[in-house]
Amino acid sequence: MALIVQKYGGTSVGSLDRIRNVASRIKRLRDEGNQVVAVVSAMGGVTNKLIAMANELNDEPAEREMDVLLSTGEQQSIALVTMALHELGVEAASVTGRQAGIRTTGSHTRGKIDAIDPTMMQGFLDEGKVIICAGFQGLREDGMIHTLGRGGSDLTAIAVASALKADVCQVLTDVDGVYTCDPRIVKDARKMPEVSYDEMLEMASSGTKVMQSRSVEFAKKYGVIFEVRSSLNDNPGTIVTEEHDNMESVVIRGVSIERSQARLTITGIPDEPGKSAAMLSCLAKAEINIDMIISNIAHDGLARHSVTMHSNDLGKAQAALKPIISKLGNTAGIETEAGIAKLSCVGIGMRSHSGVAAKMFEALGAAGINIGMITTSEIKIAVTVDETDIEDAARIVHAAFDLDKEPTK
Amino acid sequence: MALIVQKYGGTSVGSLDRIRNVASRIKRLRDEGNQVVAVVSAMGGVTNKLIAMANELNDEPAEREMDVLLSTGEQQSIALVTMALHELGVEAASVTGRQAGIRTTGSHTRGKIDAIDPTMMQGFLDEGKVIICAGFQGLREDGMIHTLGRGGSDLTAIAVASALKADVCQVLTDVDGVYTCDPRIVKDARKMPEVSYDEMLEMASSGTKVMQSRSVEFAKKYGVIFEVRSSLNDNPGTIVTEEHDNMESVVIRGVSIERSQARLTITGIPDEPGKSAAMLSCLAKAEINIDMIISNIAHDGLARHSVTMHSNDLGKAQAALKPIISKLGNTAGIETEAGIAKLSCVGIGMRSHSGVAAKMFEALGAAGINIGMITTSEIKIAVTVDETDIEDAARIVHAAFDLDKEPTK
């Protein structure tokens, strides 16, 4: 008998029929003799409808009240899924975030899970019940209802799996698993049977939006092995786990792309300490997420700082930096470039293999694709290319590293 | 500065526009220097929609899960009303039943308020905030979400007023107050400025459905004086309070009617102890609410037991009693009569005035209206009449006691 924690997203419980389907899937696991805890999100569309009502009443609804409002979405789902299980004759009980003992810290709408007191859940498991647990929410020490922000239900599932020492944690989504590249772009992309936490993290931050980084980070921190798989079929998915020796033989695990990127460069900066920091903190204050950061010195001895961001943020960034530019003196200026995209190669095998970057650049060069900025981490090489080239670039790099073929171990 | 507790029902918060209207009303009280706690119900229609979803998934949804599901309705309202107040610049915070410290006992969907720990509410009041409190819900000692059943939000308001020692408790509804009779039937019915708890209780159980009896009982027990008034205008309503000497000068406070009643009589019962109890417990087991109970002995020495109930329950009652009848021997039988209605005269002045029943019966008799069953309490006389006669009967009795005129003190 295994203890299985599953997470079903908003699409999976998006209608009463889908809720019945989720109940049937859970019943099957139960009938096979497993203990099951299913973490569920709000029914698809419910959260957006609540947000729309809030925005109609108030331009900037208070975050505390948003938590009170939005947490009702999951509370409705858990009751409905539990009722559907009862209809199938399965003993089950729902638990809200509070009842699941999920204790949180941090500011409203962006809660962090601090601890889990699984007393009530353990009691229900001991009574032989399936548990349907509300994702995305917890209780703050001061008694306030607290939501966990984007991807919060994944985080709940991983935290619950950790607290209950589950044997299996499955994150059920509308994709089959994690692929070597987006199969809509690269036809022969393969589903990876296994990927390390670090690779998953690099891919999450490089455009492979299967999960939010912080859920993966949480899983890594607490050693929760989880599987990303489809809620629509029974195919095995992708297991996300700690890295092990076999993994290193694969140089590149996958290729991620991120579109709609833009570059902003401040040119002609006197090369003095603190100038770069001023620029970055100015962008941070304007709440602009920057991705790549590159600094170098031009032939005239003046520095250039380049950053990339989502192209939607470019105007805001330019406006935010204007006051700084004028203080930098008359050599300084801003260059911007929209319409670029980012291509990332990720693999922990890079650490022990050389020549990866060269191979990647050669392949792109041979195809006449021009590379803009380059950044690297220990297990990632990322480049920017013209957005019009990004799909070709993905196919070329995918082929260059033979990602369509099963890796040899 | 007064502390005012208000209760707004589902109609009053039934749309975003109405929520804005409630917020404006609260702001006005606040601007006048009052502290305000508003207890709100779920937006009109929300609860029924949730019940429909539950019933589609399960013929008999578990009551525990119904509590989890339905309590989200009020949780949404409190957040939305609070956001609307913020938009008007009023400092406000929402509290769920749990956060309001409402501790309950009893079985799911039928919670009773056991105690209130107003710590969080007191904290918000001390910070100068208006509080928007979820009606209809509380937290059971075992950590379960608990709803209070029909009329639960009224009960919440009265309990909160008691716990916070409020100066004023206003139950805002879609009627202007409590009338001497239903103004749709008796055109010159008057709104009563004041009514005693006991009169209100007798009227609630006699068809004047302004409030559930148990809220009035709770108010009586804890001495909470409250006012029933309209949420649509600023007219003074009806104050429900402990009786005082002035009240006794009014013999009849009001006339209530209840339609769609039915009589069921078991005839030919050997006059032995326990027969009546067997009949009543049999009906109770079938969950049939009976109203009037009359027993007498016929000229043949056999007993007759008559009860009244809602006519919808008549078939169920007959079926439930069948096994008993056959055990009573061959003299026994069942008589039924549907299409009757009940007329009640209520007033604490009856205790010190004689001739009330005579006056009532004479007036009805003079109009040719036949009286069926009669029951009395210390402050009520109730009769059944043909349902076709009930409106005439109400007008006649209302006029006989001069209820259209201001009482002389």
Automatic annotation (TrEMBL), chains A, B:
Q: What is its EC number?
A: 2.7.2.4
**Alphabetical GO biological process terms:** homoserine biosynthetic process; lysine biosynthetic process via diaminopimelate; threonine biosynthetic process
| Keywords of the record | Amino-acid biosynthesis, ATP-binding, Kinase, Lysine biosynthesis, Nucleotide-binding, Repeat, Transferase
Reactions that this protein is recorded to catalyse: L-aspartate + ATP = 4-phospho-L-aspartate + ADP
A cellular component term, taken from the record's GO annotations: cytosol
Q: Give binding positions for ATP.
A: K7, Y8, G9, G10, T173, D174, Y179, R184, K209, V210
Domain (ACT) ranges:
264-343, 345-409
Instruction: Specify the superkingdom.
Output: Bacteria
The record, for InterPro entries, names: AceGlu_kinase-like_sf (IPR036393), ACT-like_dom_sf (IPR045865), ACT_Aspartokinase (IPR054352), ACT_dom (IPR002912), AKii-LysC-BS (IPR041740), Asp/Glu/Uridylate_kinase (IPR001048), Asp_kin_monofn (IPR005260), Asp_kinase (IPR001341)
Tell me the route in metabolism or biology where this protein functions: Amino-acid biosynthesis; L-threonine biosynthesis; L-threonine from L-aspartate: step 1/5; Amino-acid biosynthesis; L-lysine biosynthesis via DAP pathway; (S)-tetrahydrodipicolinate from L-aspartate: step 1/4; Amino-acid biosynthesis; L-methionine biosynthesis via de novo pathway; L-homoserine from L-aspartate: step 1/3
Does Cell cycle count among this protein's keywords?
Answer: no
Q: Which SUPFAM superfamilies match?
A: ACT-like, Carbamate kinase-like
**Molecular-function GO term, any one:** aspartate kinase activity
Q: Does the keyword Cytoplasm apply?
A: no
Binding site residues for substrate: T47, E74
Query: Transmembrane residues, as ranges?
Result: none
For this protein, the record's NCBIfam families field holds: asp_kinases, PRK06635.1-2, PRK06635.1-4
PANTHER family per the UniProt record, alphabetical: ASPARTATE KINASE, ASPARTOKINASE
Q: Indicate the family of this protein.
A: Belongs to the aspartokinase family.
- What is the name of this protein? Aspartokinase
- What phylogenetic lineage does the species belong to? Bacteria, Pseudomonadati, Verrucomicrobiota, Verrucomicrobiia, Verrucomicrobiales
